[in-house]
From TrEMBL:
Pfam families: Aminotran_5
Binding-site positions, L-glutamate: 45
Role played: Catalyzes the reversible conversion of 3-phosphohydroxypyruvate to phosphoserine and of 3-hydroxy-2-oxo-4-phosphonooxybutanoate to phosphohydroxythreonine.
Enzyme class: transferase
Family of the protein in this entry: Belongs to the class-V pyridoxal-phosphate-dependent aminotransferase family. SerC subfamily.
Keyword Plastid applies: no
Catalytic activity of the protein: O-phospho-L-serine + 2-oxoglutarate = 3-phosphooxypyruvate + L-glutamate; 4-(phosphooxy)-L-threonine + 2-oxoglutarate = (R)-3-hydroxy-2-oxo-4-phosphooxybutanoate + L-glutamate
InterPro entries in UniProt: Aminotrans_V_dom (IPR000192), Pser_aminoTfrase (IPR022278), PyrdxlP-dep_Trfase (IPR015424), PyrdxlP-dep_Trfase_major (IPR015421), PyrdxlP-dep_Trfase_small (IPR015422)
PANTHER family named among the record's database cross-references: PHOSPHOSERINE AMINOTRANSFERASE
Modified residues (N6-(pyridoxal phosphate)lysine): 202
Annotated metabolic or biological route of this protein: Amino-acid biosynthesis; L-serine biosynthesis; L-serine from 3-phospho-D-glycerate: step 2/3; Cofactor biosynthesis; pyridoxine 5'-phosphate biosynthesis; pyridoxine 5'-phosphate from D-erythrose 4-phosphate: step 3/5
Protein name: Phosphoserine aminotransferase
Amino acid sequence: MTFDNRIYNFAAGPSAVPGEVLKQAADELLNWRGLGTSVMEISHRSKEFMAVYEEALADLRTLMNIPDSYEILLLQGGGIGQNAAIPMNLMALGQNGPKADFIVTGIWSEKSLKEAEKYGVAHLAATSADLQFNTVPPRSSWQLSDDAAYVHYCDNETIGGVEFSDVPDVGNKPLVVDVSSSILSKEIDVTKGGVWFGGAQKNIGPSGVTIVIVRKDLLGHSMKITPSIWDWSKQSANQSMLNTPPTFSIYMAGLGFKWLLKKGGVKAIAKINQEKANLLYNFIDQSSLYENRIAKEYRSRMNVTFFLKDENLNAAFLAQSNAAGLVALRGHKAVGGMRASIYNAMPLEGVQALVEFMRDFERRA
């Protein structure tokens, strides 16, 4: 299926949505399932929408092989909202008072630690700040606490372009994992973590819904100060509908799950994602103009950061790439340089087009 006048969108989030999903949503917008209305105009408790909700949960369970011992919550507030909800729901499990360990590998895990400090002891167990967040601290250097309630890390740092190569072993402490930028991009063993969370706006669909996958034995431990909307046990008891949920975002996420299943599931998309990342990194590594500064074993497959060795060329690079239909390549203001986010919806052809542009720009520079 082709779509006229569609750019290659390398934005970090909200990011590209598969064209097939957008086309289906457009076709159904005014008259969804013959009801004479759109899905966003019906009651969230109607049988029609509840069918959408239940099907989305079932498809996500299939895609990620989530066992029944885990609850799936579809919430609002994004990862930043969960940075507050997580300590309020789990920190009380600390043996000597509210406490959690944090592995800080970039700006997002740093934000998580700072938010958690409001609710208890947020212990910095390891950090790569002294290495400009260009790597993951060696597991042997982590100073984990005996009395912490959980260990938190960010699987993929969207801004810096660092990704964990596997799920770390932290013993019997529950792992809390921010998968905002990597959910459904690769296979993971859900049972290795206690909580997996992330927004939909990178690998799934539009912004608005936040997915929280929590082991059921971790429900029911919230602090008294926890607002009802952030209390996982209350949301679980109300099918994530303690308040009116983001119905259109849930519907779109469901379409995204269907699209991914049709593509062959997570295993199939992971292979394509690796191919895209290899193509771009291999070109950067042999280039005399571009460089990537992340340790090779921890390079993100979703957010490829790179720099022009002559930064006087940055403005020209961005102007010309944008004119070529390769948009949103400017790096985050905190780190500078360039960033190509190549999430699930980015086709291999888009990365091929980017590499060809980069090669031509280097030749002309």
